[in-house]
Amino acid sequence: MTYSVLLVEDHKELAATTGEYLELCGYIVDYAMDGNSGLNFALANDYDALILDVMLPGHDGFEICHQVRNNGKSDIPILMLTARDQLEDKLEGFGSGADDYLIKPFDFEELDARLQAIIRRHKGELNGKSLIVGDLEFDPKTMQVKRDGNLLKLSPTGLHILKLLMRRSPELVTRDELEKELWGDMPPNSDVLRSHLYNLRKVVDKPFEQQLIQTVPALGIKLVLE
Question: Which one, out of 18, 74, 129, 195, has a CA that is 20 to 30 A from the CA of 103?
């Protein structure tokens, strides 16, 4: 299957080599070299994924991601490219709605693998009845999550993690299982999963009195109603 992607990168040489590699892999690639045109392209076209550099003239990658998620109301898979590898930067990226984070310099094979993973996950069909744990409800048909009647706003990756935790509840899901489900055989470093779990807890648990997501040190995560 051929996928269409938008690459927003202001480094011309890197953009050219990345675009050429992706086209050789069978992708249809659009290119923008600044944040303003990148945002316009992202909102005006129906891509299978976005690849966003963080440091861009005009809107930066975080702002593009935020605008696509909030103003565009889109759950398109978004992969961030950056030379900034601090945990705070990753948290900001995931907080703005990114699905994955790739640190420069990167291998093109890994870029392709991560794109394939987030696109397949996004296009995967969700079947069956709503998942319910206590006052938390996940409707797989509408992809809406509610807790105590309140609609929760999660990133696509957050939704995928929550779906797995709710399906397995109250059983433990190991970190290896989560990483395998999200990224296949090429998981990123541990900070990426930790960042997604931090943002998931912030939405699902923090505003409520009862905490559902529990960490079992050195083993994994479980979602359980005590």
Answer: 74
**What tokens does 176 get?**
């290896």
Confidence label for 72 from pLDDT (cuts 50, 70 and 90): low
Q: Token match 């409800």: residue?
A: 137
The predicted-structure confidence for 89-140, as pLDDT tens digits, reads as follows: 777 777 788 888 888 889 999 999 989 888 887 776 444 578 899 999 998 7
Whether 221 and 211 have beta carbons less than 8 Å apart is answered as no
CA distance linking residue 22 with residue 3, whole number of Å: 10
Q: How far apart (Å, rounded) are the C-alpha atoms in residues 181 and 96?
A: 22
Burial of 124 (0-12, 13-18, 19+ CB in 10 A): exposed
Tokens representing residue 3 in the block? 């996928």
Cβ–Cβ < 8 Å for 132, 149: no
Q: Which two tokens stand for residue 118?
A: 């987030």
Q: How far apart are CA 186 and CA 113, in angstroms?
A: 7
Q: How far is CA 183 from the centre of its chain?
A: 11
What local confidence, expressed as pLDDT, does residue 179 receive? Answer: 86
d(CA 77, CA 134): 29
Q: What is the pTM of this model?
A: 0.61
- Residue spans of alpha helices (H) in 33-141: 35-44, 61-70, 87-95, 108-123
